[in-house]
TrEMBL record:
InterPro entries per record: Put_sensory_transdc_reg_YbjN
Entry superkingdom: Bacteria
Pfam families per UniProt: YbjN
Protein name: Uncharacterized protein
Source organism of this protein record: Ancylobacter dichloromethanicus
Amino acid sequence: MTYTSDFETDTRLNPLDLVERMAALNEWAFERSADDEITISLEGRWTDCHVSFQWMDEVEALHIACAFDLKVPEKRKTEVLRLLSLINEQMWVGHFDLWSKEGVIMFRHALLLAGAEATDRQCEVLMECAIEAVERYFPAFQFVVWAGKTAREAMDATLFETVGEA
């Protein structure tokens, strides 16, 4: 279904230009493969992150997908899916998905910009949300994939936070 309006349409900046500038200023490795996609690679605390930004012009949304170096073997997929469910219940922004065919977990989110332009800060926050989510939950994925833990055990260990100093 297509809707039309009598509103003036003006040419807006491509938000990927802002993302490209952010990557260059932070000296992150990046590749602008097309006008509507840029990929950034950066080193995280636990794992390397591979972040893809896509400008989806038809819905005026800036989509981010952040994959990381962890392959899910077939025998652990069911438990990883349980973990994804538990993690996604905790998420306020974005969510994690498992791309079953490739065995890859990724964080995904989209910023809907219909009629508006993205700002530098919005692009920064998208990146921060993705990296923070991966950093927070990567150990839980490791516990399930490599240590054979259950999703609940992995979540309990990951969400355990110490208070105070020894």
